[in-house]
């Protein structure tokens, strides 16, 4: 039964990260390949706040949330806004460049060594005994809870609030959105902010659960297939995609070969790209410009 | 009678080289419905887009001429500023958000700042104009028929509280029964609100049914204008846009060919 | 017309470059003679940098043809180079085969993988294609890692210097001349290819795939051809890389390597073979410039452990700057400068 718990935790992680890809893609048709780095940046921001501003873990996490919002907003305003009207590919390469820039900058600032974030925050990552045979770490439990909350929150926001509707509308028909007076820049900035925010939550929890170093940004890349399997513009699709990837990964590692863990998501990605490129729940479409 | 919109010698180029409008002059009288007739490619949509504002993607530019709205020069004003001025366009294609429900399509509009109960009121107002939409309230707009989409698009535009409503191809691709219904609805809207409208049409019958004044656009230029009654009796308009007899069209084609050859010789 | 697919750099300067080549033949000959004389004066350190540039240039030319000319984005270039390096490494280790077997085998392996890389491109465009090539990168690296693990060579495969006509390619000067010839040959081959029917078909499907199809270009065939040819070249440069380092390991072929090659073609200037060469020079030199900075400006706080991160950051920043401010790359800057000077000299001539 432990394996089921592992699958649920991994699903939550991939789903939380994938939601960031989906938000930005759904609204602006940009694939954010810097998402993994932005996610890790969230964790490093927690390190910075806890070391430099406050030692209270809760306040530090709250401040980190605020900082991650600022980061997301600045990524759009300072960088991605410049790419409006450019070919999608130029925008995607820009995010690749942003990713490598962040990766380098994070090592320059916080060093290449692994950081034990949990102990820095004196957060005790004890394992919680759920039943006799199932135990998960506290951080994993939080991860599952946060994913549920984030998804419920995002779905409610997208479907019930005026700005959420505008985000959905702008993604479907940007020209009409502009003709109805919706400010696309505001909508895009909102998408980037929310995406970075949810990514940062994932980054913080992953860092609390294990250790933190820059190479963990690869989780971002591994979560990408989850978003794609479900369909890049579908939030509940991302959830299901995350489940598919997590099940395959956990089972293959458990029963076949641990080395497969790095490659399974990409094999699934290739399979889905060949069979159904727009994903299980996505919209079939083709767009060339931002 | 004052003009809410006045266009003088408007020239628009696409991609810096393709001239789409060469000196269009037209006016829309306040509180009136004005029609703009023309065949495919005559420059009707470009005229509307030039009024309602291009976006960067269009790669289009106003080269010369003036657009005046309520006496104010708004030439080259971009979206969403034109919306804030009160100019709202119902586009020809992709006129609803297909992934949103009918009610959401109305709510998503950004310019109305009213909240809560006031919002309900605005929405109900639209449903009074278009009762058919009220029944479809929770249906995704992607599942609507062409006529229902047109109604929803007009409804969405009305929520923006326009002072000037621009409608691109009101009747294109719709069944005559539906067109009649929409004409009826628009008449009601106009009777109640005295909203100024500029209606782009290929069908003179539809244009004449709604508008009190009309312009005929050909090859990026206004060829003819006049009150609807005058246009109605104009032989050329009859031939071209009411489809009375094939001789008229043949004449027109012959004329067009002659004009083309003249231009080629120059 | 701008390119809708990759669209970076709105120029399609292929033909212009070719014309320029003809016009400046003497300048090119001069450059070649100059480059041939370099080893006589250069230190081994500089020769090493030059050889690295040559290897990078071959890979960059391949990616330029694929992405810059044919408009097919690939994030898996590092994977292809790994394929070449591993084919060579495994063949050498298992059979002791010489360079006349390993190099062609690497090219063939690369071409086959290129065919596989290319298959998704028949259905996918833009972003989705980028992702499929990225995925294949990870698969190739995984297979390489599996081999290392299975064969017990978990630290990598060692290679002896290749033997050509009984001569062991070992010292810097020999490598310099060998690689120099290979770069020149690749450049020549690519530019001939671009001026052929194939090259025109690639440009057509880059500009507008649907229109190209309507005009009778066999889109599927030329797309696959682009992948096969360029993957063969990339794999070839990977094999050269392996021989030059006398060592093969998955560690070398990170995602960062793929990004570096993308940086080369962006910085060099999309759509231009000369741009690929400029990009290769530029990108190869960046880490050395950073090391130099580290030594000359000690209070920057850079040291060995952070130098590679500094170059990551520098690459990211440079790519962003070029993408946002100079999408036509170094070649665009160069052309503008030349145009300005020539127009000035013309004016002076008139006066």
From TrEMBL, chain A:
GO process terms (BP) = amino acid transport
Where is it located?
Cell membrane
Q: Which Pfam families does the entry link to?
A: BPD_transp_2 (PF02653)
Q: Which UniProt keywords apply?
A: Amino-acid transport, Cell membrane, Membrane, Transmembrane, Transmembrane helix, Transport
Its placement in the membrane is given as: Multi-pass membrane protein
Q: Which residues cross the membrane?
A: 6-24, 36-53, 59-79, 88-111, 139-158, 187-208, 239-257, 263-281
Q: Enumerate the InterPro entries for this protein.
A: ABC_transp_permease, BCAA_transport_permease
Query: Source organism's superkingdom?
Result: Bacteria
A GO term from the CC aspect: plasma membrane
GO molecular function terms here? transmembrane transporter activity
PANTHER family in the record: ABC TRANSPORTER PERMEASE PROTEIN (PTHR11795:SF451), BRANCHED-CHAIN AMINO ACID TRANSPORT SYSTEM PERMEASE PROTEIN LIVH (PTHR11795)
Record family assignment: Belongs to the binding-protein-dependent transport system permease family. LivHM subfamily.
Q: What is this protein called?
A: Branched-chain amino acid transport system permease protein
Q: Which organism is it from?
A: Marinovum algicola
From TrEMBL, chain B:
Q: Which UniProt keywords apply?
A: Amino-acid transport, ATP-binding, Nucleotide-binding, Transport
Kindly list the biological process annotations in GO that this record carries.
L-amino acid transport
Q: Cite the SUPFAM superfamilies for this sequence.
A: P-loop containing nucleoside triphosphate hydrolases (SSF52540)
* Range of residues in the leader sequence: none
Domain of life of the source: Bacteria
Return the similarity comment.
Belongs to the ABC transporter superfamily.
Q: What is this protein called?
A: Branched-chain amino acid transport system ATP-binding protein
Organism per entry: Marinovum algicola
Automatic annotation (TrEMBL), chain C:
Keyword Transmembrane part of the UniProt annotation: yes
Subcellular location per UniProt equals: Cell membrane
* Keyword vocabulary terms for this entry: Cell membrane, Membrane, Transmembrane, Transmembrane helix
Please give the start and end residues of each transmembrane region. Answer: 27-47, 54-77, 97-119, 126-145, 174-194, 224-244, 250-269, 276-294, 314-334
Q: Entry's Pfam families?
A: BPD_transp_2 (PF02653)
What is the protein name given in its UniProt record? Amino acid/amide ABC transporter membrane protein 2, HAAT family (TC 3.A.1.4.-)
* Bilayer topology annotation: Multi-pass membrane protein
Source organism: Marinovum algicola
């Amino acid at each position: 039964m432990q394996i089921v718990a592992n699958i649920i935790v991994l699903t939550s992680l991939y789903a939380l990260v994938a939601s960031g890809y989906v938000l930005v893609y759904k609204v602006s048709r940009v694939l954010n390949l810097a998402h993994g780095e932005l996610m890790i940046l969230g964790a490093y921001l927690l390190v910075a706040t806890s070391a430099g501003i406050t030692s209270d873990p809760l306040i530090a996490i709250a401040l980190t949330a605020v900082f991650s919002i600022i980061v997301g907003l600045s990524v759009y305003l300072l960088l991605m806004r410049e790419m409006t009207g450019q070919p999608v590919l130029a925008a995607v390469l820009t995010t690749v460049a942003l990713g490598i820039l962040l990766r380098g900058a994070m090592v320059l600032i916080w060093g290449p060594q692994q950081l034990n974030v949990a102990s820095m925050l004196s957060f005790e990552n004890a394992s919680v005994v759920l039943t006799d045979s199932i135990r998960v770490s506290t951080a994993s439990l939080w991860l599952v809870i946060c994913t549920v909350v984030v998804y419920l929150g995002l779905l409610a926001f997208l479907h019930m609030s005026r700005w959420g509707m505008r985000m959905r509308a702008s993604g479907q028909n940007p020209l009409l959105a502009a003709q109805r007076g919706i400010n696309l820049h505001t909508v895009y900035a909102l998408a980037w902010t929310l995406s970075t925010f949810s990514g940062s939550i994932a980054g913080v929890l992953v860092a609390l659960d294990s250790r933190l170093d820059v190479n963990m940004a690869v989780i971002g890349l591994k979560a990408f297939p989850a978003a794609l399997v479900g369909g890049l513009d579908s939030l509940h699709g991302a959830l299901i995609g995350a489940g598919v990837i997590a099940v395959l990964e956990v089972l293959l590692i458990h029963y076949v070969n641990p080395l497969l863990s790095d490659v399974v998501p990409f094999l699934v990605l290739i399979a889905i790209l060949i069979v159904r490129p727009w994903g299980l729940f996505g919209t079939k479409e083709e767009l060339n410009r931002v | 009678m004052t003009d809410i919109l006045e266009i003088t010698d408007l020239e628009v180029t696409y991609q810096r080289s393709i001239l789409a409008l060469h000196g269009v002059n037209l006016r829309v009288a306040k509180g009136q419905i004005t029609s703009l007739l023309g065949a495919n490619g005559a420059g009707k949509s470009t005229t509307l887009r030039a009024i309602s504002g291009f976006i960067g993607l269009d790669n289009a530019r106003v080269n010369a001429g003036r657009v005046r709205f309520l006496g104010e020069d708004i030439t080259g004003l971009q979206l969403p500023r034109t919306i804030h001025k009160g100019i709202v366009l119902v586009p020809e294609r992709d006129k609803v958000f297909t992934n949103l429900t009918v009610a959401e399509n109305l709510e998503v509009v950004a310019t109305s700042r009213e909240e809560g109960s006031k919002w309900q009121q605005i929405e109900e107002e639209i449903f009074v104009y278009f009762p058919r939409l009220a029944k479809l309230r929770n249906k995704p707009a992607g599942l609507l028929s062409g006529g229902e989409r047109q109604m929803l698009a007009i409804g969405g535009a009305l929520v923006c509280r326009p002072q000037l409503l621009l409608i691109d191809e009101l009747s294109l691709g719709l069944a005559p029964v539906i067109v009649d219904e929409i004409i009826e609805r628009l008449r009601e809207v106009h009777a109640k609100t005295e909203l100024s409208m500029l209606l782009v049409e290929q069908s003179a019958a539809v244009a004449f049914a709604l508008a009190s004044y009309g312009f005929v656009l050909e090859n990026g230029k206004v060829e003819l204008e006049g009150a609807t009654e005058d246009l109605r009796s104009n032989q050329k308009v009859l031939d071209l846009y009411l489809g009375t007899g094939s001789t008229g069209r043949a004449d027109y084609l012959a004329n067009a060919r002659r004009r083309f050859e003249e231009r080629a010789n120059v | 017309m701008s390119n809708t697919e990759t669209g970076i750099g709105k120029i399609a300067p292929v033909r212009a470059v070719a014309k320029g080549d003809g016009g400046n033949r003497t300048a090119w000959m001069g450059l070649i003679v100059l480059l041939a004389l370099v080893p006589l004066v250069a230190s081994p350190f500089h020769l090493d940098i030059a050889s690295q540039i040559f290897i990078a240039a071959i890979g960059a030319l391949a990616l330029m043809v694929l992405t810059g000319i044919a408009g097919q984005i690939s994030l898996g270039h590092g994977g292809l180079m790994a394929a070449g390096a591993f084919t060579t490494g495994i063949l050498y280790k298992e059979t002791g085969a010489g360079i006349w077997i390993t190099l062609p085998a690497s090219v063939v392996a690369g071409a086959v993988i290129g065919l596989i890389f290319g298959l998704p491109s028949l259905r996918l465009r833009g972003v989705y294609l980028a992702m499929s090539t990225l995925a294949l990168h990870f698969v190739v690296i995984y297979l390489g890692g599996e081999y290392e693990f299975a064969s017990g060579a978990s630290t990598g495969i060692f290679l002896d210097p290749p033997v050509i006509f009984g001569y062991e390619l070992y010292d810097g000067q020999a490598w310099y001349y060998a690689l120099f010839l290979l770069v020149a040959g690749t450049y020549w081959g690519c530019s001939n290819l671009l001026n052929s029917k194939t090259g025109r078909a690639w440009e057509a499907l880059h500009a507008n795939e649907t229109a190209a199809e309507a005009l009778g270009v066999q889109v599927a065939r030329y797309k696959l051809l682009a992948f096969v040819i360029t993957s063969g070249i990339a794999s070839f440069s990977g094999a050269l890389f392996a021989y030059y380092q006398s060592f093969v390991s998955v560690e070398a072929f990170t995602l960062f390597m793929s990004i570096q090659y993308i940086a080369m073609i962006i910085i060099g200037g999309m759509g231009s073979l000369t741009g690929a060469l400029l990009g290769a020079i530029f990108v190869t030199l960046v880490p050395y410039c950073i090391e130099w900075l580290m030594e000359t400006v000690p209070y920057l706080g850079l040291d060995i452990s952070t130098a590679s991160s500094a170059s990551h950051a520098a690459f990211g920043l440079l790519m962003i700057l070029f993408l946002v401010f100079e999408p036509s790359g170094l070649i665009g800057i160069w052309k503008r400068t030349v145009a300005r000077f020539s127009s000035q000299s013309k004016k002076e001539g008139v006066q």
